[in-house]
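Hi R.,

Quick one: here's the [histone H3]-trimethyl-L-lysine(9) demethylase sequence you asked about.
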Amino acid sequence: MDDFRDFYSFCERIDHWGMRSGIVKVVPPAEWTGKLPKLDEGEVKRLRAVRIKNSISQMFSKAGGGAFHQKNIVHPAKVVNAKQWADLCASKEQRGPDMERMKGNARAEAKARKQELRMGHFAVPTDDNDDDDDDGEQKEEDGVRTRSGGTPSRETAKHGQKAEGKVKMADRTTEAEWNAFDYENGWCHEAGPKATADDWKDEEVCRAIEKEYWSGLIWGKPPMYGADLEGTLFTDETKDWNVGHLDNVLTRLKLKHRLKGVTTPYLYFGMWRATFAWHVEDVDLYSINYIHFGAPKQWYSIRQSDRQRFELAMAGAFPGDSSRCRHFMRHKSYLASPSFLASNNIKPLRLVQHAGEFVITYPYGYHSGYNLGFNCAESLNFALESWIPIGRRAGHCLCDPDAVHMDIDALLEESAELEEMERRREERQRGQVEHEARLEDNCVFCPYNLDDDLVPLRADAKARYAHRFCTNFMPECWVGEDDDDDRGPGEVVMGFDSINKARWSLKCQLCATPQLAKKGAKVQCTYSKCSRTTHAACALKDTSGWLLDVVGDRAADRLEGKTTGTDEIEEDDEEPTRMVVLCKQHNPEQKQREAVRKALVLKACVTRLKEGQNVRVRTSRGVWMTVLVEV
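And here's the predicted structure, written out as tokens:
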């Protein structure tokens, strides 16, 4: 299980095999299979919710020499559920060959080969399927894109308009019918009452069924395929090898939109003879196919080394299509039997995929196949790192406007841009978190994150710290000892809860930005009715022009303009003191400094004047023109 668990790593380890054979089957360990939840259990019965829409009927016509043309007709009005699809598969017209007859044919074939060996004659290797090689009319129809295990070209039936009442057919199955529906093993009864799933694991029996398929391909009622249903039957409980969430290069790309039809999983409901024609994946991608339940799939694959020979053989069998479109094989509308391939010196690889098994297809590996009865599979395209140069070179069909095409470099560039945007967003978010964390240790009264002389607030306060200086100049607060604090005895900020709420909404007139001006609590100029406010820390700057001091009452009254006088006030240790906050306009020291500054500016201006120069003198009585005699 440890070797299997990592999907991407597992695919990288087997990549060299798949790039030679074109296809690989993976049988998951029992530990993985045993953990899969049942499809008909739980609150949401996933299988019952599936609706098979736009089912198709498949028409086959001979192109001669074991080559066939496939044409699909869509029936949009036929919407059925899985139980109704199983009933359709078990009908007399659509069921597969009788298993007892297939076993008899297999025994007869084996007996004939043994008899030839006893007679000393070695049978010349021929195809097991002697299909009718009479040339028929070749219908050259272009198709549309589908995924591996899916369907080729489609046409909508003229009678395929929605009809009243028929759309709700899928809701007619009763609870009793659902409970009696054995989706895992009921399909075996299509081949007879004694048939079991193990019968399809006999290689000789599968060869007999294969011969039955090719010999009767163009006869009987056309098979139907419930293909290209967007969705998944896996749940988030399945972490490993969940087709809906596979780790690969495409899912690692950061894109604005998912690559519909490529990175989205699709469901396929098959029946006997429901066929997927020869093709390689869009943009030469990898694909993975998993059968959830039901009958096996018969796969064919062409080795990558035989790819060019195969393409030439198919171009010769379908000259009209190949001349009109260079990538005509991407139409997924052409079949070639093993006998046709053998006649062109091409030996296909065979593989039978059973329920609970994965099949992986590889770039440049042509593959096709058909279903042996009622089943449900899930498929998805994916890519490894080694696919990127392959994707850059991949061609696409120009005659189909819906053909998938990728500009790999553009996708990589878009992904890189989005990754960079995400990285920057994460940095901003991380910076915001760090900033908020720092704010928790900052002063609650000012916007400066200086950690000097921080005093903790009481444990029951919303904030955590405040500067000692800011606290001392906040009228309602002071630093004191608190022996009852949960953190132990020590200095704490007292009076925090009694701060006037208006202080938090005032704006600092010294802060550089509006955001900073709104933070913290502000102090107001104490001169008369002045309404100017600032952070105590902002007022402390030398360039602010504000005055913050604690002085005696008499000195405070003079500074605040309540009293006048020029006499020096003697210090009195017993005199009460109070805090004085003066703005730049009311700070006497600032006024004195401003007067000195203006005097110096005036002196500098006067000294630049020359004797005899005309000058203007402004007085309270007006402006006078005169001549400068001397400075």
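The longest strand covers residues 55-64.

Cheers,
M.
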